[in-house]
């Protein structure tokens, strides 16, 4: 299982076109999704997110009303104070957790989340392999990019290529 973040970045970018083709391949055939879920569970069980934290450095976390309630309660501050101190406006104008390009999420300490028990739903579900709306195949467009930084997604994509006997470019 590959977990080195530098390698994941390099290989995920290198395989971007291949992964886009893989997405097309999945969409044009019928699959039993259970095998993809099983592979996702295996990869998730084998990778310890506490040693990684890359999604917290890379992604914007969109907030729902209940996330703000939970986090404000956890931090024992008023919701208005939480919004003022810990949120900002994301690229698409939505409210997101405060973050910086250099350090990532405001709550990231080392590789760990300092508000883990009250982390937003989007963080809890990330990388949205086992929990997400729609089928895994319909969510493949998100995974091509995530495979450039998330070890779980990268390894899962490679496992599913094997499972589905996807012929990589250069092997046709
Ligand atoms: S709240 Fe925690 S899990 Fe979510 S992005 Fe920030 S550090 Fe990561
Ligand atoms: S979900 Fe992926 S990117 Fe985030 S901590 Fe886990 S392995 Fe790393």
Describe the structure.
The chain is mostly helical and 172 residues long. It has 2 domains: 5-55 and 128-163, no CATH class; 60-125, no CATH class. 49% of the residues lie in helices and 8% in strands. The chain has helices spanning 5-14, 16-27, 33-46, 54-58, 65-75, 79-86, 121-125, 140-146, 151-163; strands spanning 87-89, 95-97, 99-100, 104-105, 108-109, 112-113. The strands form 3 sheets. A two-stranded antiparallel ribbon has the order 1-2. It has a two-stranded antiparallel sheet with strand order 3-4. A hairpin with a 5-residue loop joins strand 1 (87-89) and strand 2. The longest helix is centred in the N-terminal third of the chain and has 14 residues, at 33-46. The two termini are 26 Å apart. It binds iron/sulfur cluster (2 copies). One iron/sulfur cluster binds next to helix 4 and helix 9.
Brief descriptors of the model:
172 residues; mainly alpha; two-stranded antiparallel sheet; 6 strands; 49% helix; elongated; binds iron/sulfur cluster
Outline of this structure?
The protein is mainly alpha-helical.
